[in-house]
Amino acid sequence: MEKIENILRQEIFIDEESHKYYLKGVEINRPSVSTIMQYLPQYVFDDSFAETQEGKEILVNAITRGLHLHKIAEVWLKDRQERTCCNLYGHLEMKRWLLKILQKITNDYNEEDGWEIISELSMVGERYVGTLDILLINNKRKQYLIGDIKTTRHPDLQKETLQLTLYKHLLEERFKQININDMKLNNYFVINCNKINKEVYFMSENIQKIAEKHTLEIFEILNLRNKNL
Ligand SMILES: [Zn+2]
Question: Which ranges in the chain belong to alpha helices (H)?
């Protein structure tokens, strides 16, 4: 059987430098998941703290940490290669923990049981685009889990779940296009890797329900905007 990963990736390309999405070679200009999340006021990213020098440094460090750890996960999931990290404070320790968790995931969701682990999957939907961090998918069991890597002290699980729910809807669109049927979401998870908070979170039914409600609100706004174009 052909790997689902190959089918999912067909005809979609993202340029890592410019973050532009291409479908069959044509550039797509649709908003991203992180953009449409902010259609709801409670999820607008407040970067006003970065107006001070100290705040700016905190923001730059946070972005660097996020980029480094995402790259480490991506490279490891793709080729089981351990990427070296910089000498920035705490990165080595965070990297070790992250790789330990990824190793555990590949043991728990293993190939013999039909699992595929896909990292950095870009998707182009009718209305928006997005790239998820980790997809665990099993075509025999008809199950999948969507995971995200975060590097914050206190992850906002409701916000995380909204983001992951928006990926789920993109993925469902994609499943339809490529005739993969009856896939069921098992759960969402967040691997949070920070100096003072390292934890893997799975989402409660209640958090998921609220996220679905917020997703529908975002879709209404998207539809209104598209109508007014
Ligand atoms: Zn680093």
Answer: 4-9, 33-37, 53-79, 91-108, 157-177, 205-228
Q: Which two tokens stand for residue 144?
A: 């999948």
Residue 194 CA to ligand 1 center (angstroms) comes to 12
DSSP class per residue in 68-96: HHHHHHHHHHHH-------SSTTHHHHHH
Confidence of residue 30 (pLDDT cuts 50, 70, 90): very high
Average pLDDT, the chain: 94
How far, in Å, from the CA of 69 to the mean position of ligand 1?
7
Distance of CA 109 from the midpoint of ligand 1 (Å): 27
Tokens of 55: 């705040």
Cα(174)–Cα(183) distance, integer angstroms? 11
The H or E element containing residue 190 is: strand 184-193
